[in-house]
Amino acid sequence: MNEQNSLSIATPQKRVVSFVIDDIIVSLFFMVIFYDQITLFLQAIPVEDRSQSQVILDALNQFVSANILWLLALKVIYHTVLVWQNGMTLGKYIMKIKVVSLETQEKPVFMTALYRALLRIPSELVLYLGFLMAFFTPLTQTFHDKFSRCVVVDA
Predict the structure, then answer these.
(1) Are 151 and 21 in contact (CB under 8 A)?
(2) Where are its TM segments located (predicted)?
């Protein structure tokens, strides 16, 4: 427990900004990867409906819903590989924070990074309750941090 006390825990505010940056990056990757399909999908909207933003939003929501498994897989790969390799995603890098194992205080091994990335999915899908945990736990751990035995610290 003394080792945990010596860690400089990242603030929830840094984590929120990091989360937003990472979600924007993953969304951009998704849009680049599926650019051709998105373009075809939007071209299928009749010209007279293109001025209505709600029609376009509905079409994009329908496209994302049809490809949600690809989006989730992209998120898991992004978070797994970057946390495993560097202890941080691009958002964490920008915010100068990183993920470490509670046991070793080093970047997580591959299986821990994968487990943490997989646990992020229910953290997000259930009204972000898994993320809200960070505001109420001593080490500002989210659901996926707690169960993967990781903590986010200042880099």
Answers:
(1) no
(2) 55-78, 117-139
**β-sheet bridge partners, residue 150:** 101
CA 113 to chain centre: 12
| Global confidence as pTM | 0.85
The CA distance from 26 to 72, in Å, is 10
Question: What angle separates helix 35-43 from helix 53-66, to the nearest 10 degrees?
Answer: 140
pLDDT digits (tens, 9 = 90+) for 76-109: 999 999 999 999 999 999 999 999 999 999 999 9
- The ranges assigned to domains in the chain are 2-154
* Cα end-to-end span (Å), the chain: 20
Among candidate residues 72, 154, 150, the one with its CA nearest the CA of residue 111: 150
